[in-house]
Amino acid sequence: EYAAKSAQQSLLAPPCFAYALHETTVAPGLDERQRIYQSVDWQWLDVIRLGTGLTVTAELQGTTTDATGTNQVGGVEYRDEQGQLIAAATTRCSRPLAPRAIGPDQPEGKYTGAELEQIERAILAESRRGDRPQYWDDVAVGTELGPLTKGPLSIMDIVAWCAGALGVPDDGDIISAGGLSDEVATGPQLTSWCAQALTDWASDAGFLHRLHVQIAELPGLGSTTVVGGSVTHRWQAGANHAVQIALTAKGRDGRALATATAIVVLPTHSDAVRLPIAQPLDFQPNGTTQR
């Protein structure tokens, strides 16, 4: 009943549901090396409605080699039953010559009772706008979103994500076929946290269109990650109205685990978001500010 009254009049899958269909690591060969998920550039052109059938294709788009190893760029497309492109991801994976630590090289985090209580309060204070539209007219450059808190990270958090995203570690090995350690959150998992911060803020009436995530470090067991950001640009894009957002996912010590740039399409007080988006929007250059 709630969904029927919403902007899309349907139950929707979250954007990163796409990871359940393909983990987006496109890095064939070199089986003896790690596959390290460095970055991903997502485009969503339409929402994923209940009952939509999706077909996934993936291909290796490019390979470069240097003194440290090999870098592979892959593309994954998700199309509906009519062949219309719903979402696409371009990923970059490194294949280092020497094994590389892909999580923090430190013991599992420990917390005092007061620290755990503070984390719990932060999580309970979070909300998603849901049926309260986030109107473009009311958003300014500098408008903040978040924080979204994830943690402390448990082994069950990792297992549950990997089971859903086709990245379970191989038997007898701590590295999965997707290059994932069994003691850290995955790159796709960290990406989905960024996406949730955006969709919580955008409301049911908004639409997450693009998300580029650059990963510096993966959160380990016991870690707590906080995602937050602010609007850097706002502009009219044809029939739609868009904002660009800079996000950072920070660890407990304040270090940036990942940085992200997103484009969210929002309704105005007079116009709804027009979907599907026919021509993907470009990110606005750093150093410029559009109001």
In brief:
By secondary structure, the protein is mainly beta. The chain has helices at 113-124, 155-164, 187-202, and strands at 12-13, 36-44, 48-49, 55-66, 69-79, 85-96, 144-150, 207-215, 225-237, 240-250, 256-266. The protein is built from three helices and eleven strands, in the order ββββββαβααββββ.
Rounded Rg: 19 Å
Mean pLDDT: 90
Distance between the termini: 37 Å
Biggest sheet record: 9 strands, antiparallel
Topology, number of strands: 11
Into which percentage range does the β-strand content fall? 25-35%
Q: Are there runs of 5+ residues with pLDDT below 50, and where?
A: 168-179
SSE succession? EEEEEEHEHHEEEE
